[in-house]
Amino acid sequence: MGFAAGGGAVMARSVKEAAVDGLTIGVGITDTFANGVLSARDPGCGVEDFDFLSTIAGTQIGIVAKSDRGWKTMSDVIAAAKAGEMISFGAMTPRLADGAYYIGKVNDVDFNIVSGYKGGKAVLNAINAEDVDIGWVAGPQAAGVLSGDLVNHCQW
To answer: How far apart are CA 16 and CA 44, in angstroms?
Structure first.
């Protein structure tokens, strides 16, 4: 199959509608199958319509918290929220704030979402200052994760 112009949503719908012949694949960014599917009124497909084969690239974005919170995985964060702990979730863009909302929604928890930070470093500063409990951080968390001061919760 050739590439479909117009973005990942067009590609995803084209792959969904293609014959199951073992020859058709699509390549899309995470947003195509995450925020794009969740926030569209009628995306024309869902994650259940695809078999995900491989990750071919990665980014440094993660959901980060201070290690002393005791949360090792995102499941630990969800469990704390379900136990009644109000957890604040920092985000640097409206799309990442939406992502935090959807993570809460699918896990039946409500986060206090704090958005409008100017980049990942600002979210990281808010986490370290304990202004927020967890947050999306893109890159600057690497040293803190390696030292053990931070935990990247992008594992369930």
So the answer is: 9
